[in-house]
Amino acid sequence: MRDGARAIRWLLPVGKTALLWFARTFGTRLSDPRTGESIGRVLIVPWKGKLAIFGLTKAVRPEFVPQTRVTYARQDLAFLVVPEPNYPNVRGQHDSSYSPKS
Question: For 14-44, what is each residue's pLDDT tens digit?
Fold first, then answer.
């Protein structure tokens, strides 16, 4: 039984690498609808009522796309690139990690 567990432990990274290679080579091309920027090639698999997306290299956010015709039976879904957070450098302004007392 231990040899089987060792073989499975060895096969998981190989399977992950093969799946990502397949998704990034033959997958569907995604692009950001706002900017037109290419997100990359991905493999989208519906799984138990959710979407499993393989091959992403950027952080994305799903969003429903406005439609010309009102039909709620089938709505289009788009993926938007999430911008990097721009937090201010608080440490450069104060010596302590607490807010200054007034």
Answer: 888 998 899 888 988 988 888 888 888 999 8
What average pLDDT does the chain have?
81
> Is 41 in contact with 54 (CB distance < 8 Å)?
no
Helix (DSSP H) and strand (DSSP E) numbers for the chain:
1, 5
Listed by start position, the domains of the chain span: 2-81
> What's the number of CA atoms in the CB half-sphere (13 Å) around residue 40?
18
d(CA 10, CA 14): 7
Closest CA to 53 of 8, 15, 19: 19
| Chain mean position to CA 90 | 29
DSSP for residue 32: -
